[in-house]
Structures are given as structure tokens and as C-alpha cells.
Amino acid sequence: TRLLLLLLLLLLLSSELSGTQDCSFQFSPISSDFAVKIRELSDYLLQDYPVTVASNLQDEELCGALWRLVLAQRWMERLKTVAGSKMRGLLERVNTEIHFVTKCAFQPPRSCLRFVQTNISRFLQETSEQLVALKPWITRRNFSRCLELQCQPDSSTLPPPQSSGALEATAPTAPPFPLLFLLLLPTGLLLLAAAWCLHWQRTRQRMPHAGEQVPPIPSPQDLLLVEH
């Protein structure tokens, strides 16, 4: 009996430990009237109240929506600390709709995240859009791979796009003059050697062989007699 009890405790402990890295939902934590709650809060707040949103999260299909809700839920907690009683109640209703993200062991936001300022109405509208995107998939997907918020690659580390000029620059170009001279030198020497051999053969054919008589070179007087 003690051994069985010990095994049960170990199983419970292992399931708890393994669950800390799990991010899935058996039942949908998103209500059917979340849009109404968000609209009521938006109508009550000053439309131009400034908040910040991440501007360089990775464009993941479902992780991106979940990441934005993680950041939105932290803003809700921050706003509740400075809100009056009426606003705090409205904030809590919206916060209840996105509080499910705290059930997953998300890692702290990375330092590469950049934030830009926006107004509260736009912030709440985007929060509603993320809930709409997640609602059909919230019970059908395991979001364990989304536990670390990912930034888009920094533009300074990306290779610059190749323009037409860059493509032309990568095309093979003519070799420089010294290299061209070295490449053509063997061909020139071969042509020169062939021309010399042909000239030598013609000269040899014109030279008299052994035993042949060379006609005498006429004198100027002989040339004058021939002309008359």
C-alpha cells in the first residue's frame, strides 16, 4: 500500500512538473461576449489615453496573437493600479477574458522587443482582434512552442536586397589587361612559331640542293644588251 501511494505521488508530481511547460486548453477560456466587454471599457476610457504595444513581434500565425495578449494582460494589470472603482471593474471584466495567458509559463519578454506608443482605443481594438483570431483554435492547438516571445530579425543584420545594378555587378566581367595578356600569350607564341616554320620551309624550298648549279647573276652590261 505504501509503495502504491508513493507511486501515485510520483505520478502527480511528474504531471505537475510537466504541466508547467504545457500551454493547452481543454475548454475555451474566451467567452462569447468578450467584444461587448471590450467595447464597454473603450466607451468609458479616454480615447487618446497612451499605452505601448510591441512593434516587432514575429508574424506567427497563432503565437503572434497569443504574444500580444500576454503583453495586453500586463497592461490591464498596470491600468487597474491607477484606475478608479468604476474603471477598475470594467478593466477586470476585460482582464478576465485574457487572463488565461497566465496559465502558460511564458518567459519574460526579450530585450530585443521594441515598443511604440498608441492610444487605448486602438489597443483595445487590437486585443479584440487577437481574441477573434484565437477563439476557433484555443482548444484545438497546443501552444507550448509559443512560450518565448520572438522578435523579428533586426534589419541591420539582414542582407541588403539585390538591385539590378548589384545583379549586373555579379555578372562575369572581362579580365583585366595583364591577365588577358597572359592568357593570350601562349596562343600568340604558337602562331608566331607556326609562321616562322612556314617561312623557313619556303626559304628551304628556294635554296639549291647539292649538285645544282646556281645561274650566274647577270652583269649590268648584259642587262643593257638584252634591252637593245
Automatic annotation (TrEMBL):
<keyword id="KW-1003">Cell membrane</keyword>
<dbReference type="Pfam" id="PF02947">
    <property type="entry name" value="Flt3_lig"/>
</dbReference>
<dbReference type="GO" id="GO:0030183">
    <property type="term" value="P:B cell differentiation"/>
</dbReference>
<feature type="transmembrane region" description="Helical">
    <location>
        <begin position="177"/>
        <end position="198"/>
    </location>
</feature>
<keyword id="KW-0325">Glycoprotein</keyword>
<dbReference type="GO" id="GO:0005886">
    <property type="term" value="C:plasma membrane"/>
</dbReference>
<dbReference type="GO" id="GO:0008284">
    <property type="term" value="P:positive regulation of cell population proliferation"/>
</dbReference>
<keyword id="KW-0202">Cytokine</keyword>
<dbReference type="GO" id="GO:0009986">
    <property type="term" value="C:cell surface"/>
</dbReference>
<keyword id="KW-0964">Secreted</keyword>
<protein>
    <recommendedName>
        <fullName>Fms-related tyrosine kinase 3 ligand</fullName>
    </recommendedName>
</protein>
<keyword id="KW-0812">Transmembrane</keyword>
<feature type="signal peptide">
    <location>
        <begin position="1"/>
        <end position="19"/>
    </location>
</feature>
<dbReference type="GO" id="GO:0030971">
    <property type="term" value="F:receptor tyrosine kinase binding"/>
</dbReference>
<keyword id="KW-0732">Signal</keyword>
<dbReference type="InterPro" id="IPR009079">
    <property type="entry name" value="4_helix_cytokine-like_core"/>
</dbReference>
<dbReference type="GO" id="GO:0005615">
    <property type="term" value="C:extracellular space"/>
</dbReference>
<keyword id="KW-1133">Transmembrane helix</keyword>
<keyword id="KW-1015">Disulfide bond</keyword>
<dbReference type="GO" id="GO:0097028">
    <property type="term" value="P:dendritic cell differentiation"/>
</dbReference>
<keyword id="KW-0472">Membrane</keyword>
<dbReference type="GO" id="GO:0005125">
    <property type="term" value="F:cytokine activity"/>
</dbReference>
<dbReference type="InterPro" id="IPR004213">
    <property type="entry name" value="Flt3_lig"/>
</dbReference>
<dbReference type="GO" id="GO:0035162">
    <property type="term" value="P:embryonic hemopoiesis"/>
</dbReference>
